[in-house]
Structures are given as structure tokens and as C-alpha cells.
Amino acid sequence: MIEDLWYKNAIIYNIDLDMFQDTTGDGVGDFEGLMRRLDYLQALGVDAIWLAPFQPTPNRDHGYDISDFYGIDERHGSSGDFVEFTHQAKKRGIKVMIDLVINHTSDQHPWFRKARSDSGSRFRDWYVWADQPQSSTAGGTVFPGKEESTWTFDEAAGRYYFHRFFDFQPDLNMDNPVLRTELRRVMGYWLELGIAGFRMDAVPFVLESEITDGSPPEQRFDVLAEFRQFLQWRQGDAILLGEANVSPEENRRYFGTAGDGLHMMFNFFVNQHLFLALATGDVQPLIDALRATRVESSTAHWANFLRNHDELDLARLGQADRERLFRAFAPEERMQIFGRGIRRRLAPMLQGDRRRIEFANSLLFALPGTPVLRYGDEIGMGEDLDLEGRESVRTPMQWSDEPQGGFSTAEDTVVPVIDQGAYGYQHVNVERQRRDPNSLLNWFTRMIRLRKECPEIGWGHWEVLDTGSDSVLGLRYDWRGVSLLTLHNFTDEPREVHFRPGVKGDERLIDLVVEAQSVAGDDGAHSMTLQPYDYRWFRVGSLNYLMDRERVD
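Given the sequence above, the corresponding C-alpha cells read:
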């Protein structure tokens, strides 16, 4: 059923619960606060909320070091608060997705405590152990400069345990079928509490076979198939959205065939080449990336993003291109991280230039796939580079010009609210922009509505148009006899474009953003001038696309 594939024409909004709204005065966001902001999200046009981890945790890695997969961290409320939240979200037509962090646990998790203290415990084999560190994984840590090895000696166990992330996050052993059964129970538990799917963290590492003999790890895609099958049995329209920063050649394995892989994946490859195009004004690398990641499956779908809760990872670009992006968007060393990424929010990366911010987000909405927004980007929030590492982009939501930005009444918040400079809460906040019809927030509301009125992007077949300019990206979407065209000028100079849409009725294009249209010349081509960082959305032939669309039962 088409309605079961809801994710193909949705807007997903990523929230750190810690940072969104505090109602208890302890300086930490909670579910009661999130419930109070659901009307805001509904008005914005959000279809699904993706929540970062909120389970009990020592909180040494922003909650990704989970110590109880079945619980709610008491700072955020109770299980009852969570169920009430999902109920209220459902009433507003908003689906809820949560992080599925099953590559590792906290070293404080009861499973690991039992595993390290008793060699005969059934939990011992739920983790990966070795008598000596294996050289094949030296340098394989996710955090170069933070962790020297992927193996750490445990005094209690008398052996080394494996970890891709920090040493307080031991990896789980997916080769153990009993563990996998338990993880499916974890999925089933949260599905029963009302969620619509999972954002699956660190998928390539989840699928690694046990590493104990020094040989390179293999990927176990049968494990992914198990999780997908379980999900479909329990809730037919629930989805798996995977974090897998892999090469285009590997994408098909993660999407799988015949419904045995991920429903959605973040398109890291396109994301990196999108920023390369923004830095250079040359759209060809982005076109190549789009074509390299084309998917033809009717159920597989990309999730597109500009910025997220981590760094902007540039690892798949060559060194020269990476340096070019550093110069353009992170010229100071403190803006860079791990030698491969940028730890900044979008608005300051684009120097607060409203034209470029609108352009970049219009492009996000126009790409093949589903847009994923980071909380606060709709008002142009900035980062706090005084915070360590990835924390720079994890600051409290700025609701008003009241103390602490309306986030909390506490004097000390989980991390400081941005209160200095052009991006301080006194200048950048929801209340101020809500009242301004020309604000970025109201622009987002209009563009989200436009994007949702263009199901051709989510459902249709796409082609790149020859625009006659190497700085202008043209995309055409076709679905059920209706076509949509988008144009984006990547430079700070006007560009002339001359193109043929190549579909029936293309002699007239109706602009969907402003009251205008384009009529083809005698040669059947359209010509127009795009201003610096200009974007245009056209429907072919008529605005009455619902009547024009071919009926498909």
C-alpha cells in the first residue's frame, strides 16, 4: 500500500531531547517539554520526529553510551511520559522514530558488568574478547586522536575487549544468536510503545563479524535481514533508517533486495559533494554523486541532510577537495575535527547569508529522497566552538529572548545556551521569527508546505537537465503523468540557462514559489536568468496537477 511508504514524502525533524525544552528546572530537556512544543512542530510541517538517545546512560558520549535499552533516563521523565508523548504526537499526525544504538553498550550496562565479572556467564559471549589486541584493527577507531586502539584490557575479565568507539563503549557480538534475539525484543518493546521506526546507529559496525584472530571483519547482512523481517512482522509500516557512510558501490547491499535491508539510508556521499559544489560553484561533482547513488527499488529511499548532530564528515572526498571545503567553511583549526570534518552549524558556515541559507535548504528539499532537518536550523541557530568536539552543534533550542532562551529556568543548563554574538538567543529565536512574515522560520514553513505538495520528488523518477551552465543544477521529476522541475544557481553571479524539459506539455512552466511562468521559445527551449544563489521550482503545464495526473489504482 502506498500509505505504508509514508517516509517517501515526509519531513523528518531531528531532536536532542536534552536540548529542546526543560520543564522541571533542572537544565535538561524532558518529554513534558517536548510535548508542549508539538504544536510548534505541527505548524512547521514536520511529519516525523527522530529522537537522539534518551535511555539511562552515564552520559559520557551524549547518551550513545546506553546502560539500559528498556528504560528512560530519569532526567527526561518516565516511561509514562514517553507513552503520553507518542500519543500526543500521533494525535497531531506526527510519527516518532528513535535511535537504535546496538553496536555497543555502556561499560556500566548490566550485561557488560556480568560479562566482565564471570567467564562462565552467558553474557560473556555477548561482547567481543581476545587474549591480545589484534593488529588488523589498529587505527580502526571512529575517533582518531581520542582513542589509540580499538582494544582495551579489562582487569576484571583478564582479557581485551573490542570497541569501535570510546573505550567505555564495548562492542556487542552480533555473531551471538541469543544476543540478536534480545535486541529484537528491544525493538519490539519500543514498537509497542508507539514508535514508527528506528534510526539505526553505525550500521556497518553493527554488521561486523566477531574480530578475534586478526583477520579483516566481514559484514553479516543476514543480521540486517533478521531485523528487517522482525520489524515488518511486528509493524508493517515501521522503518529502518540507517547511518551507513559507505561507498556508492556498497549502498545496494545495505538497501538489500526483496525487502531484506534498510528502508532508508542517509546519503553521506551526496552530502559531501553537495558542500563541494557550494564551495566551488561547480555542480558536476554533485551530479556525479546523485547518479552514483541512484536507487531503483520501489521501497528503498534516501534521507538527505545538510547538517546533523555530528560533524560534517568529508572523509570520502580527496585531500585537495577536503582542504578546499575547510578553507570555505571552516578556516580556523578549531572549526575542524578528526582531520576529516567540520563541527559547525549551517548558518555560520554560510556566514549568515540569508540568500545562501535559503538556497541550500531549497536544494535539500529538491534532492531525490526525504529531507531531514536538525532542530534549530529553521531559525538559523549557530554553534558554540568553546564546547568540546561534536558538542559545538548540540546547544539548547532558542525559543525566545527570555533568560536561557526560553529553554529552561535553571541558572545552569546541560550545556550553555548561546548568548553572545549574532547567533545569541537574544537575536535568533522562535518567538521573534514567528512574528516576522519575512523570517527564516516562516520561509521554512512555506517551503515545507511546497515540498509536501510535490510528491513527484518522493515517488517519481528523476533526471538531470542540461541547463547550459556548469553552475546550475536542473532536476526533473516525473510521476503519474506530471512533471516537476527545479533549478539552483550555485554561484554569487547571475547565470543564463537554456534548457528543454523534455516532457509532454513542456512549452509552459508554472513557477511554484512566485507568481510567474516561463514560455518556451520557437526552438522549444526555455531561457531565463537566475540571480546569485537563485532557485526556481516549476510544474510543467498546469497548476492543476491533481487533475492532470494519470490515475493509478
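The chain has a mean pLDDT of 94. Try to locate this feature in the C-alpha cell string yourself.
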